[in-house]
Amino acid sequence: QKEVEQDPGPLSVPEGAIVSLNCTYSNSAFQYFMWYRQYSRKGPELLMYTYSSGNKEDGRFTAQVDKSSKYISLFIRDSQPSDSATYLCAMSTGFQKLVFGTGTRLLVSP
Amino acid sequence: DTGVSQNPRHKITKRGQNVTFRCDPISEHNRLYWYRQTLGQGPEFLTYFQNEAQLEKSRLLSDRFSAERPKGSFSTLEIQRTEQGDSAMYLCASRQSPQGHEQETQYFGPGTRLLVL
Predict the structure, then answer these.
(1) Most buried among A90, B1, B67, B74, by the most CB within 10 A?
(2) DSSP assignment, residue B16?
(3) Per-residue pLDDT tens digits for A53-64
(4) CB contacts, 8 Å: B41 with chain A
């Protein structure tokens, strides 16, 4: 079993929809949680960062962490075709390597 | 451009050849990481440096792989006697020294895409 599980998708939604992306994990020592966006053949771009449990909002993006359930989520409001990309969750125990999910491919149609 | 840079962006080589990739981190970042990403997978950790010291190596990093960061600035990743299974995107990331919980984030370069024929 992988430390971090993420549905690979693809997830197809119409423009303007609310998108929900999720990851589960097994290592209770993870304290730092990130979401990266990766366009085809590009490096991952940091979207959201959260320490420990709670919510964080940045524009159309909201990240949630529930450590008791070992579950993290990323919500995208008013999705745009330019949001079409692969979304990677990543987490770490602190100041060392990141452990990534497989990534969820999102397709937003006009 | 003050982001992480990687060179070359693409490399095609024949099986058995040696290849070397370079990473230039963000200038004030003293931690540098290498990851490998294959198609349809998330990046997998290979190794990381704090300044010039290599602090951790993954079991994925066979003895054909070697990484250096001689002056604590840029880093090189060399693969000797390449195999077809080495074909992947090699990603470099950097970050600041830990100065609190907000400094955990890593910033990635564009990657070097390797194809071994």
Answers:
(1) A90
(2) T
(3) 889 999 999 999
(4) 102-103
